[in-house]
Protein: Putative isomerase YbhE
Amino acid sequence: MSLRSILTTTLLMATTASAARTLFVGSGKGTIKSYEFDETANAQGLVKELASTSESSPAPTWQTIFGDLLYSVSESGVPAEGVVTAYQIGSNRKLIKKGSAKGVAGPVSIAVGKDGKLVISASYAGGGVDMFAADGYGGLTHSQNFTYTLNKPGRVPDRQEGPHPHQAIMDPTGEYVIVPDLGADRVRVYNAKSSTTIKELESIKTPDGFGPRHAVFYPVGNAKPTHLFVVGELSNSIITFKISCAGGQLKAKEIATISTFGTQSVPTGPPAPIAAEIALSPDGKYLYVSNRGDKTQAGGTQDSIATFSVASDAKLAFMQLTPSGGLSPRHFSITRDGNWVAIANDGSGNFAIFRRYPENGTISSLPTISTVNDGSACAIWYEPKVEYS
Structure:
């Protein structure tokens, strides 16, 4: 066979392989399911369920992938202990339980240290943050805990009656972990240089009633971060912080605030809308936020995803609102090539996959596929890097 034929065959095999993508969907109803999404198939063959597990019941509402390991929460209410479980992702995309460990009640998010040896969970119901030593093969050992209290309720007393850590995020350098605390109106900051424990630093204060839920560092990749975008669930706004990291400390200065509805009016309800997920595009040029409960799309039957362009100085400019494909888009994720967005709509019990256009950051107004998955809470793409020898 000629070299040209070999290259052509290899390219065709790679193209075929890349057409089938894997998506994991965690549900508040107790399951984590894996799906194959084939963008080249006809409408009937676009999505196929591959496997399902209920070993993270009652509510595996968040998953994080590190290598071929998937870490999942088992969200529970007080006084039940929360559980973090590690699964190996099999070649057939079936999840194989490798280990688990208990922490405070209500874990809702997981971050993994840069070397994979430290796992951090944020617990909404239990008002705490847990650390687990990881062996890299799925084994987990609880190593540290921070549990918080408030002297008095916040500005939104029915939601800020106590601390509510809502997400754990590792910064791109692997040196810091941040935890937005919705109840305390602050972003908690930790130094994560140790492989088993973290050290609490001075936190970042947000305005009263802001309700920080999730955040993302800018720029994307392994670069040293210069800015931090934080979305407020209770205020439906995004704060841009300019950050500096030196001497083992992460400092932040608020420089801008913008509505999650951009230049459009914020719906008044009832019920009032509440923001949820925030994410940057793979190239860092666009920022996306999900709005729950606004029903501004598809004739008032769907909630929205807001799109913003990101300038080199981190200034945001509103672009558009597009349908989420359902109600209450709790989570979404974007493929590494930027072509597809998967959105978990837990209010309508489905996930939807939309075409995204990397050249201008826009998202299609109609989903390519919408699939029933009761309690859909987290939709995360699994894209292992292919190694060539």
Notes: Residues 1-17 have pLDDT under 50 and may be disordered. The domain at 29-37+46-382 is CATH 2.130.10.10 (Methylamine Dehydrogenase; Chain H). The CA atoms of residues 75 and 106 lie 5 Å apart.
